[in-house]
Design brief:
Elements lengths: L7 H8 L4 H7 L1 H33 L1
Helix pairs in contact: 1-2
Amino acid sequence: MVEERVPIKAAQERLGHSRPDILLKFYAHVLDASADAAAESLSGQLSGGMRAVEAAQNAAV
């Protein structure tokens, strides 16, 4: 459900946990894998943006 972007509160209720932090504690390994994918995606976007800035600076010279 986390990977499918189901809200934590909805997943917590569906799984029968009394509090959202319980869900997050027991399923943290899923979030860790998602965090790695998010970091890779952001890194790619940032490095692509830096290439555009460098190209613009080189064109101005």
